[in-house]
């Protein structure tokens, strides 16, 4: 039995490290160099991405994400991202969750977004989708979410 204790401790340590890595918590909270992509090429299979496009702020949507292990409470702002200069499209291919609040009087803005490509359910719930549908937008079946890298504190 005494021979099994080190094995269990090693297994427990490996599981904790794996959890820290998948949750992107210290010491694994850095991010790789983002890959440059167009709005149409973003897929959830990508890891870190850099995308240039036009943000639509037709609806001001924010979410407060509660504090969790080693992360403070933070307000995230959600908006759709379209190809650069495109202010007329309404079919959403990419949503962005950003910790930076958009300016009040700006309806459209050309931005460069760097962040994690994630499945949309990571932040986009039914209320967010409904609010954007009421504003005249629709969603592609395979749309992606880009969660902007958190600012260094």
Describe the structure concisely.
This protein is α+β, with helices and mostly antiparallel strands. It is 18% helix and 37% strand. The protein folds into two domains: 1-30; 32-148, OB fold (Dihydrolipoamide Acetyltransferase, E2P) (Beta Barrel).
Tag the structure with descriptive keywords.
153 residues; 2 domains; 7 strands; elongated; 18% helix; alpha+beta; OB fold (Dihydrolipoamide Acetyltransferase, E2P); five-stranded mixed barrel
Structural class designation: alpha+beta
| The CATH C-level class name of the largest domain | Mainly Beta
The biggest sheet, with number of strands, parallel, antiparallel or mixed sense and barrel status, is: 5 strands, mixed, barrel
Content of β-strand: 35-45%
In whole angstroms, the N-to-C terminal distance is 46 Å
- Name the overall outline: elongated
**In the CATH hierarchy, what is the architecture of the largest domain at level 2?**
Beta Barrel
Q: What does the radius of gyration come to?
A: 18 Å
H/E element order? HEEEEEEHE
What share of residues is helical?
10-25%
- Count, helices: 2
- Biggest sheet, strands in spatial order? 2-4-5-7-6
Tally of strands: 7
Compute the number of structural domains: 2
Helices and strands, with pairings:
Elements: H1 4-22, E1 35-37, E2 48-56, E3 61-65, E4 74-82, E5 91-98, E6 108-118, H2 126-134, E7 138-148
Parallel strand pairs: 1-2, 5-7
Antiparallel strand pairs: 2-4, 2-6, 3-4, 4-5, 6-7
